[in-house]
Amino acid sequence: MAQIGAFNQLTVIDIIAHGAVLDGGDKGEILLPNRYVPEQCQAGDVVDVFIYADSQDRLVATTQKPKAQSGEFASLKVVQSNKIGAFLDWGLPKDLLVPFNHQHRPMEVGKFYLVRVLNDERTERIVASSKLDRFLDVWPAEYEQGEAVDLIIAGKTDLGFKAIVNNQHWGLIFQSDIFKPLRTGQKMKGYIKQMREDGRIDLMLSRAGKGKVIDFKDQLIDYLNQHDGFCDIHDKSSPALIQKTFGVSKKAFKATVGHLLKQGKITIEANGIRLN
């Protein structure tokens, strides 16, 4: 059965003048237009395609990859607005509609918004919504302090940045725990700093203590490999330079350098760090 708004592996049943006809199961036959048909494609082949509705609301297949599938969050740009709603660029020929009743606040052309892509049950169309609370769990989260989680940065607040945790819950990264630039829609790994009694989640971008050292260790090794095995930033460098270069505090930098030095992976020189 073909799923609308997602990638599917569908069987080619025929090759016609306009493209390949795919078996969409209960969705019927679905056309893969000629410009997306693989070379030497023939009946019986299985192709990996994304299914959505074209401008005439007919189901169509494409090998193009949208910026988000149904059920995913993404930061997308508004390219048009009319009496129906706002339209977002999501990487496909037909722009993605955000109906007015799915807009958290009126959307403006040229601006980016974090949205959830979904299949509208009433119209069976793929649409987007910026009313994110509708798609997050209302039940208290159960995370352990220090647990690794997937984050989607949702926007800046007076205290720091809101983030969606594991596509399920709201969390907050306090400004004091941010050591690198963040942007709305950015996806990254994070960690649970603490679970508050009121159910709110505090987040951090790197582990505390030993875990923090290990997290940054690979990044520093990669930097050395990319710069002929040498780094001219050292323990006398300014905190601002360290943060700008590596996105970590000077304390984390020094701890990581000490950790690698003990392992014999680096050597400290007068003007920097050398990879052994």
Automatic annotation (TrEMBL):
Domain S1 motif residues, every copy: 3-64, 69-131, 144-206
InterPro entries to which the protein is assigned, alphabetical: CvfB_fam (IPR014464), CvfB_S1_st (IPR039566), CvfB_WH (IPR040764), NA-bd_OB-fold (IPR012340), S1_domain (IPR003029), WH-like_DNA-bd_sf (IPR036388)
Pfam families tied to this protein: S1_2, WHD_CvfB
Family to which the UniProt record says this protein belongs: Belongs to the CvfB family.
Name of the protein described by the UniProt record: GntR family transcriptional regulator
Organism, as annotated: Thalassotalea eurytherma
Gene: yitL
